[in-house]
Amino acid sequence: MALQALISVIKSNTNVEIQCIGQFEMLFGLLSTSECGQDNRTIKTLALEVVCLVSRNKECVTEIAACEIVGRYLIVLKDPDLREHQPRVLETLSGLLNVPKMIKEAHTKGAVIYLLDLFCNSNNPTIREQCAELLAKMNADKLSGPKVRITMCKYLPLVFLDAMIDSTSVAVQMYESTHEHPELIWNDEIRACVSDAVRDAADSFHVQQKRNPKVAWRDPEILPELLSNELVVSGVYLRLYVSNPGWTLRKPKQFLADLLDFIVDSISRSGMDTDVLDLATTALVLLLNAQPNLADSVPVLGHIPKFFRQLSVQPKSALTVLHQLSLSEICVSAISQTECIPSLKSCMEHHRDLTATACETLSRLFKCQHDSLIRQSLECQLIPYLVALLDSRLVLANNPAMVKAQIVAALKAMSSNLTYGDRVTHLLNQYPIWAEYRDQKHDLFITDTDVRGYLMGAPNTTAGYLTQGPAKNVEVLTSPPPIDRDDPLFARSNSSSGGSV
């Protein structure tokens, strides 16, 4: 009767609930009472209604947070006496979680595992959506949100939390569906294992919390069912992404940053599996091909100088990344602020099989006309080295003519620089071989298609030219050729027409 009267008073009088301050330990204790025999369920239900009413007042919630008694409330989530009132229990919990300190304590006292249990195993879609909403709310807290995220990732792939944030109903549907795409591998077997593991963890912790409401939750190891032989970076399965690079990623910038970190760390790590590194590098190139604008955000991440330093460690992967980044003018601007040309030259000297990629990278860099890049080239004697390549057969290159076209493009771009162009031109004119290339229309033979590098035109007969026209002018006939009267066909035609021509 006293609880019913209290409920009536609170409902009938505005802000009167603040008079409950100082009595919350007693009220929360009634939620788990077991000393009233057959009236236990009634008392718990009435106590729940009182807590629900006071949770709408910010002063009351602040006081409840100060009392650190939320553990007593979380026990209610698995109380069979209040199972039919679970929507009300969750609604009240939402009100309590309006204070950051309460979110912190709720996470410490195991709120995440209780909510995950209901999300994964409840038969009521409304309850599951309420739990998803509460988990998203806890994740949004600036202080405790990251810890909530870590706890959830022990049991569920990260994509589910993002789905909860976007749409609770979609999150529930996603959980019950089967998926295999770059951001999620999820099937009936995995779902059953996760649901069972979450239920067992919640039941076990509930037993401990009933004995001691102040017991703290400890994150377990990640579920073995969530681990696989797949290479996963930032929640993206690289094998599946490489096979489907057009997939719309949820967080492409985060994936880019994490993938760059992974590649840099992998190159630095001794004994790294080259297949893993190649897969990650391929994924990065495909990502930047699919979303070129992402490359503009790379310089601020600080990876560009690291890749130049790693050219001597893993030249293929590092150069492949730099080759892709050279398509971005913003990246080239950042590259120009590093001592990059000597590293590229050294890479070409020691790894002749990478000459084609390095030359195209240089061509792209010089096209942007940064003085520092031309200066570095002059200082490290890059120009004589490139001219020597023009005069060589480039036997290790798949398409020597295309490589030479890239070299010509790079040298011409350097010679057109306003600051150092005259010095470059003077230096080039000292090499007789350059005279055979400087007037070449090389841009016609550089293509980004699948037949890249193939020559168009007649075979060369003069060294150094990518194409060559005929040596003499050819007379163009403007009238039909004369009839050959000795042709048997002509004689046969003449006899059939009576001998007249």
From TrEMBL:
Residues 492-501 have a biased composition (Polar residues). It comes from the Eukaryota. SUPFAM superfamilies: ARM repeat. One of its GO terms (biological process) is regulation of early endosome to late endosome transport. One of its GO terms (cellular component) is endosome membrane. PANTHER family: DNAJ HOMOLOG SUBFAMILY C MEMBER 13. This is Condensin complex subunit 1 C-terminal domain-containing protein. It comes from Anopheles maculatus. The lineage of its organism: Eukaryota, Metazoa, Ecdysozoa, Arthropoda, Hexapoda.
